[in-house]
Amino acid sequence: MNAKLSFGQRFRVLLVLGRVSNLPTVWSNCVAAWCLGGGGLSERFPLLCVGATLLYTGGMFLNDAFDVEFDHQYRAERPIISGEISGKAVWLIAATLLLLGWLALVPLGNRSFEFGTALLAMIVIYDAVHKRTSLAPLLMAACRFLLYLVAASAANGEVRPTVIERALALAAYIVGLSYLARNESTSGVTSRWSLPLLFAPILIAITRNSSNGMILWVAAVAQAAWVLWCLIGRAVPGRCYFSKGVAGLLAGIALVDWLAAVGAAEQLGAVFIGLFLLALLSQRFAPAT
Q1: Distance of alpha carbon 29 from alpha carbon 252, whole angstroms
Q2: Domains of the chain (ranges, CATH numbers)
Q3: Phi then psi dihedrals of residue 237, to 5 deg
Q4: pLDDT for 76
Q5: Nearest of 1, 141, 116 to residue 58 by alpha carbon
Q6: What is the mean pLDDT of the chain?
Q7: What is the spatial distance between Cα 220 and Cα 224, in angstroms, rounded to a whole number?
Q8: Predicted confidence band at 200 (pLDDT cuts at 50, 70, 90)?
Q9: Minimal CA–CA distance to 15: which of 85, 75, 100, 83?
């Protein structure tokens, strides 16, 4: 860490590297999959969130460690390139966080630990190759998909078909926003073919949810409205109070999780909305991308 930086500046560097504004969406993933898996009150749930938090944050540090060459060309403001922290320190922090996150999953049971090991491997693979392959969004989606499996299996020792369906819907959403993010970083042409994937969770929830009540439709309308806001706002220049574009869509993962959990956790709607708002507020001091 640059010795000239104040404590507050150093702390912010760590927040930026860890992209902590996305952590509320990691927690919403855990809540949704835990409820879909039939989990109730248990001391394992906080441990699940701790493990997921460490794995995600470690993966983000590792992302910057691998991306030095790309950031030299396109993202000169990133902490390693700007000299705020050394690449060696970032590698060390990334390895430590990933190891601790992986070990935190051990008490959750063999099934969860196996999925967690696959998640760890996918995180490392994604970080290592995502700037070298056009299939990187699929790897990113696989990480969120595997997190659902980790959480659901930790809840009840098994993965129900509903969990797979909702995890696939989330994965489709991640693929859609990830292709937008790839082009946003390099000012490339928008991949319009991927935009319909952002509405996949709505289609899956409406057609596959046995609880076809008002909460389902409220959640569906909320997610659809937010996606449209982000896509339309992305094309409008100028600052805006609410996030838009890729950053907004990332915060919207919490709304996808709310929609996924309708029927399994209708009483937790306020939790998902709160995590969505927390993600938006966090983006004001720690960029999401």
Answers
A1: 12
A2: 9-282 (1.10.357.140)
A3: -70, 160
A4: 86
A5: 116
A6: 89
A7: 6
A8: very high
A9: 85
